[in-house]
Amino acid sequence: MKKLITVSMALCLMFLAGAGGARGATGDSLTVEEAVRLTLASHPLVQQAGYGVAAADARVAASRSPYYPDISLAGLYTLLEPVPKIDFPGLGSFQ
Known about the structure:
Distance between the termini: 109 Å
Number of helices: 3
């Protein structure tokens, strides 16, 4: 058991020492928070859960639709212009 604890502590110290050195050496490395954020943003199960939440919100909105007023609109129009009429001498008139 003591050997396991000693090895675990040694690995943790090596990781912490390596993380500090690697972070200063390269400017394009990720922090743990950035890696977790990127993983959560692109993981398919997380995206599926987000779509499930959006679907549930849509069902809630649909269930509340009877509480909203029903508005309808109908329109008619009538063309009230004079009918064009042309008179030709000897042939009559055309509409």
